[in-house]
Every structure is written in structure tokens, then in C-alpha cells.
Design brief:
Layout (H helix, E strand, L loop, with lengths): L12 H10 L6 H11 L4 E4 L6 H11 L9 E4 L3 H14 L5 E4 L5 H10 L3 E4 L1 H9 L10 E4 L2 H6 L3 H10 L5 E6 L4 H10 L4 E4 L12 E7 L5 H12 L4 E4 L3 H13 L4 E4 L5 H13 L4 E4 L14 E5 L5 H8 L9 E7 L1 H14 L11 H18 L3 H13 L2 H12 L24 H5 L9 H7 L21 H5 L46
Parallel strand pairs: 1-6, 1-7, 2-4, 2-5, 3-4, 5-6, 8-13, 9-11, 9-12, 10-11, 12-13
Length: 536
């Protein structure tokens, strides 16, 4: 943070009052570098990581440059519904009386149509629903003067870049354009070259393809894949974070993890794209208000979430790309706060994570899965701190009277049993790493040299499976694993060799003497008799 103030950057008195009401005194680095050129009407191409304060970076100059007209003047495109609604709510806190139209999918059209008909200077939406309103001729972009593309790299990953280009092509030439992206791949650079006019390029020190967040501690945990959920239960019971956002790879996995956490005494809810928009909004509201402690979500559903003071992000298996891992981890450690990114990985994913740490400069602090004894010890320590802080004079007198008539150890043990009756102590998990399954068939050299796994006969394999051996079973190996000589099994016909036919069934072959004599028949190719030549 620098000593620059929002007033020095040129913000209006109304916006300064709204910022002071929310407790914002000094701008963040991205805001300090973008607000002034934004107020001057310059196009901006900004590379900044998630959670760096981008919404205010483009929101403040956008709101200050609005006129008194009610027609659509600014269009903000976001990759997900949640991010679009969050941006709209953020702008409302700065200008409560400003009409803003939220055009997102999964909700009814009527409220959106009503907002557009009454006049909304600012339109915030996703590319799909904005395209839908343009095709219905319910959204007029002919007088738009400002366009914001928020998290453009994620719109590229979700396949919205073609829709974005279509929308920008239908806007009259000349609007001020803000493009914010954590990374700048070739398609986004091409988009910026086409639609931005001499932009001010800003790349913060923490931005880039493999940006490292200094406020986030990366603590991976090595556990077998089938034990990830139980390991997560032990970790949450041991650390007891105030809240946690848990990422999974599939929609079905979100429901499974949330159910297992709830059964283990850790109430959780799941969030994915198949839920109705009203349900998603309700769950997000509970999580932001602190009524819900643990939220299990997919990447798309949790994209753009801004949870103030989120201390922990959990990865149930790492994503396929380092950029996605960094974006996931960026849900914590926002606005200068400290956070932890915990990844549950198997043996194969741990090697990928180590490669990422070398390539992206991540500092990994590996930890083990806590045991039930460690969980009970942590719960007892927290209980002891709570007891010492809540001891009043009346309670101390009552405790003194109880200790006179009872054994102190038995009394404390009974109280602990009452307090911790509903508390889970986690699962007992094996601490050894995953073992590689050896191939069923060894090399011939290993069998010859008497390796650890000699070749077994069919009868031995059948006995190991608990089945009765088949009668008259043909085998080429002895019980000790060595091969029988060829003479032992050459007499028996092999299953795939057809037996040779007997000599009696074969008719005798005719010799040349038994063939009939050739008849002296004229051949058509014999020369014709010569004709005598006569002079005419």
C-alpha cells in the first residue's frame, strides 16, 4: 500500500464518501495505476491476479464518467452469474440510487426486461444472456460509451470469447474499453489488438502466467485417492477453521463430499451449475453471512466469489493446469489478508504439484493427515481456552463446592464426556504411502533366477481364488513353477490344432499311367493347308 489517496487520483466527493463509509482509505496497487487513466478516457489492458481489487479499479472511473441520461452507457461482461451479480452489488454500494440491470442466465426474463425498459445506465451480465437480449432486440447498445471485460482469460477457458467478439462488433466504434485478465494468452492479445485503441498496458508485479501470491501458504497433503474425504474430515476437525471453500472436479463429487462432511458433524452445502439460480443465491448468501461454515463447489460455480476473510481453500485433487490452481487459491488471501491453500493429492498428483512448484515458484509446506489422538488433543486445548475465558466468580464458587464432594479427575472426565459427546474424533487412516501394484506376470529371467514371484500353475492360481480345479486340466508347468519338457505334452493334441485325417479316408491318387490316352484331335491353331497360286 502507498500513501496515495483516492482524492489524489481524482475521485468525486460522492464516491469518496461512499469509500470512506466502507472503510477504504488508500487504493490498492491495481486501483492506483488504473483510476487516473480511466478517468481520462483511455483504454486499459490490465494484467492482475484474482482478488486484487479490480472491481473498484474499473468501477470508480466508470461511475464517475456516467451522464444523467437513462439509456445504456456502460456494459460489463463477466464469465459467471455469481461474478456478474457480485459486480452489480459492489457498484450499488458506491451509488445506491443508480439503476443497474443484471442480465444473467438461470433467472426469469421479466425482471430483466423491466430494468431495461425503465432505463439502466449500467448493464452487468454474462455473454450468453447479453447475446440473448440482443437477439430479442430488448437491449440497445447503440449509445454505449464504456465496455468492461472482467476476467477475460476465464471467458476464454469457458468458450465465451466468440460471443464477446460478436457483442463488441455490434457496438458502435469508439467506446472506452477496459480489459482485465490474470493471464494474456494469444487469443486475448488478438482481441485486445482488434478492439482496444492505444491502450494503457498495466502489468502488476504479482500478475502473469504463473503468478505467486505472497499472502497464501500452500500446504499439500499426501493421501490415497479413496481416502481424500476422510483425510479432509480429519484436517477440518484438527484445524477448525472459521470457514472453508472446498473445490472438487465434478458435480457429483461436490454432493458426496458435502454429505460426508455433514455426517461427520461438519455441516456443509454443495454448489454446482445444475442448481437453480435461486438456490445458488441462497447458499452463497448463507456462506457470505457466516451462517454456513463449509461450501463444496466446482470451479465454474465458485468463479469470481469474493468472500471477505476466507481463511482456507481446499483442493480435492489438483486441476489440470497450474493457472486453474492459482485461480482457485486466489479465493483466499484477498485484500492483503493471509490465507491457506490446502491440496489433497495422491502419488501421481504430488509429482505434478512438485513440478508446478519448480515452474511457478510455489513454496510447498507438506503436512501429514492428523490422527484421532491429535484431533482430540486440539479439541481439548480449544476447550481449555474457552473454559478459562468464561470463568466467573459464581461459577468458581460452584466448582469449589463440587470438588469437595467428588474426585477431581472423574469430575473433569465426566464433564469432558458431556461436552464432547457430539464431537467427532476423525478417522484412523493408514500412514504408509500408496504401494505400486506389481504386474501379475514376471519376466522370464526373474522366474529362471528364482525371483520373489515365480510362475504359478493353473491349479495354484485356482486354489488361491478359492475355486475347485477343473478336471483333466492341461498345464505346461510343474507345481514348482518350472516348465515341463515337450515330450510330456506333445502326445496330447492341442486345443487349437486340427487332427490330421486318417489315410483310409483319403482316396488314392491317380498316376500318369492310369490317365486315358490323349486323342489325336485337330487343334484350331494348326496351320491350314497351303493353296495353289493361280495367275489371273
Amino acid at each position: 500500500m502507498s500513501d496515495t489517496t483516492f482524492a489524489a487520483l481524482g475521485c468525486s466527493e460522492a464516491l469518496l464518501a461512499a469509500l470512506a463509509k466502507r472503510g477504504f482509505e488508500t487504493p490498492m496497487p491495481v486501483q492506483e495505476q488504473t483510476i487516473k487513466p480511466g478517468l481520462e478516457g483511455r483504454d486499459l489492458l490490465v494484467q492482475s491476479r484474482t482478488g486484487s481489487g479490480k472491481t473498484l479499479a474499473y468501477g470508480l472511473p466508470l461511475l464517475q464518467r456516467l451522464s444523467e441520461d437513462r439509456h445504456t452507457q456502460a456494459l460489463i461482461l463477466a464469465p459467471t452469474r455469481e461474478l456478474a451479480q457480485q459486480v452489480g452489488a459492489e457498484l450499488h454500494t458506491l451509488m445506491p440510487k443508480l439503476p443497474i440491470a443484471n442480465l444473467v442466465g438461470g433467472v426469469a426474463y421479466q425482471p430483466q426486461l423491466r430494468s431495461l425498459q425503465m432505463g439502466a445506465p449500467v448493464v452487468v451480465g454474462t455473454p450468453g444472456r447479453v447475446m440473448d437480449h440482443m437477439n430479442r432486440c430488448t437491449l440497445d447498445l447503440s449509445r454505449v460509451t464504456m465496455i468492461v471485460l472482467d476476467e477475460c482469460d476465464e471467458m476464454l477457458n469457458m468458450g465465451f470469447l466468440e460471443d464477446v467478439e460478436t457483442i463488441l462488433a455490434k457496438v458502435p466504434a469508439g467506446p472506452q474499453t477496459y480489459l482485465f485478465s490474470a493471464t494474456l494468452p494469444a487469443p486475448i492479445a488478438k482481441l485486445a489488438k482488434r478492439f482496444l485503441k492505444d491502450p494503457v498496458q498495466i502489468q502488476l508485479a504479482e500478475a502473469g502466467e504463473h503468478a505467486v501470491h505472497a499472502d497464501i501458504a500452500h500446504t499439500p497433503v499426501l493421501a490415497p485417492d479413496h481416502q481424500h474425504v476422510r483425510a479432509l474430515v480429519n484436517l477440518l476437525l484438527r484445524d477448525q477453521p472459521s470457514s472453508a471453500l472446498i473445490f472438487t472436479k465434478t458435480k457429483a463429487q461436490t454432493e458426496e463430499v458435502a454429505e460426508e462432511l455433514t455426517v461427520s458433524g461438519l455441516p456443509a452445502a454443495f454448489l454446482h451449475g445444475d442448481l437453480a439460480q435461486a438456490t445458488r443465491t441462497r447458499i452463497l448468501g448463507q456462506f457470505k453471512d457466516g451462517k454456513l461454515r463449509y461450501l463444496v463447489a466446482t470451479d465454474v460455480a465458485a468463479r469470481g466469489l469474493d468472500i471477505e476473510g476466507l481463511p482456507l481453500v481446499v483442493h480435492m485433487g489438483i486441476p489440470t493446469q497450474l493457472e486453474s490452481y492459482i485461480h482457485r487459491s486466489g479465493r483466499t488471501g484477498r485484500a492483503g489478508a493471509k490465507g491457506t491453500s490446502l491440496a489433497l493429492v495422491g502419488t501421481k498428483e504430488s509429482k505434478i504439484l512438485l513440478a508446478w512448484s519448480r515452474r511457478g515458484g510455489l513454496k510447498l509446506d507438506w503436512r501429514a493427515v492428523p490422527t484421532p489422538a491429535e484431533i482430540r488433543e486440539a479439541q481439548a486445548a480449544k476447550l481449555l481456552d474457552g473454559i478459562q475465558g468464561a470463568a466467573s466468580a459464581a461459577l468458581l464458587n460452584q466448582a469449589t463446592q463440587m470438588l469437595k464432594d467428588a474426585d477431581p479427575v472423574r469430575l473433569v472426565a465426566g464433564l469432558l464426556g458431556l461436552v464432547q459427546a457430539d464431537q467427532a474424533s476423525g478417522f484412523e487412516l493408514p500412514n504408509e504411502p500408496e504401494k505400486k501394484v506389481k504386474s501379475r506376470f514376471d519376466l522370464a529371467r526373474e522366474r529362471k533366477e528364482g525371483g520373489s514371484r515365480p510362475q504359478r500353475t493353473y491349479a495354484e492360481r485356482t486354489a488361491a481364488r478359492g475355486e475347485a480345479p477343473k478336471p483333466d486340466t492341461f498345464s505346461k508347468t510343474r507345481p514348482d513353477g518350472t516348465f515341463k519338457p515337450r515330450r510330456d505334452f506333445d502326445e496330447k493334441p492341442r486345443p487349437y490344432v486340427k487332427p490330421k485325417p486318417s489315410a483310409a479316408a483319403t482316396p488314392p491318387r491317380k498316376t500318369w499311367e492310369a490317365q486315358p490316352a490323349a486323342k489325336d484331335t485337330p487343334r484350331p491353331w494348326k496351320a491350314a493347308p497351303a493353296k495353289t497360286w493361280k495367275k489371273k
